[in-house]
Amino acid sequence: MQAVGLLKIGTKRYSERILLNEFLKQGYFLIDASPVPLTNKDENSLAKNAKMEKLRLYQDSLLETIRELNPLKIIFMCETNMDVLNRVKNDKVLGERLLSEKYLPFAGNGQQSKLKKAFPEEYRLKPIYSGDLS
What we know:
Layout (H helix, E strand, L loop, with lengths): L15 H10 L22 H9 L2 H11 L12 H8 L22 H7 L16
């Protein structure tokens, strides 16, 4: 939520539910690219290529969900979504709604600052927390 502006950097205490509700209220949607965990039988995370291969199975379903939501703005996160991002780029309607021709870095794995830099400034939201909650 720091990347999209809702949470000021350095805020230590906050409600994730309040942040998510505000995020949704502002017209943003989070759509998981896969309806199933991208893990192996031991529940360990798959390698990037294996994730991409598994995600290909769900591209049509993901595109259908995006079309049903009919968003005005679309951003893809994570390199594993490159295939579906390329399909959206080539879609006459959805392609015009992409805010970035490239995927944004996934916020996990210590990449929060990279995501914040990559997130388009003109779409950043106003923070709802100005500091720590009491």
